[in-house]
# Entry
Amino acid sequence: MANKSKTEYNLQYAKEKLKRIPLDVQREKYEEIAAAAAFKGEPVNGYIKMAIDMRMKSEGFLKSEE
# Structure
């Protein structure tokens, strides 16, 4: 029963706090991204988020580390 409650909480949290961003890339590009992420020991999702943060910061849109 506790697992169901945790799952329900996670789903509710995601619904209220998260926004999905669909991203389509060609397979070859994905393989390049995945290889770079693996080299750094990071998941692809985290690698992409870091790249977005780095660009936003360099362009003055990200003021602090989140």
About this structure: The chain has a mean pLDDT of 92. The domain at 21-66 is CATH 1.10.1220 (Arc Repressor Mutant). The chain has three helices and no strands. Residues 36 and 42 are 9 Å apart (CA to CA).
